[in-house]
Write a structure and sequence with these properties.
0% strand; 123 residues; elongated; 78% helix
Length: 123
Amino acid sequence: MWTDVLVAIAAAVVAALIGWPLVPAFLRLTHSGPGRKPERTGAEDVEVLRGGMWIGIVERALIAGAIVLGRPELMAVVIAVKGLGRFAEIKSSAAAGERFIIGTFVSIVLSSLIGVIGWAVIA
């Protein structure tokens, strides 16, 4: 029992720390990829998705820990709370919506991978 919790905590910490540099790197790739860059409207001067780094860290930790402990359904709760909390910002800005989707997908993939590795260690 305690080893399960310790592995879950370790997976949560690893997921949070690995995603910290990787998610922003993927977000930067979206600005240098193919296609035309969006026109500036002036709304970009407002901070887009302020606090996203910390929300992402917590998101990755919770998802990895939930998977290790055999409760992957808790991912839905984490993502739903994140989406509801960001709904107004996502709705008002295309850039915010893009960052939200890309950042969330990358976070989910990284934390799920680490969570499954932790779950395999326990099993």
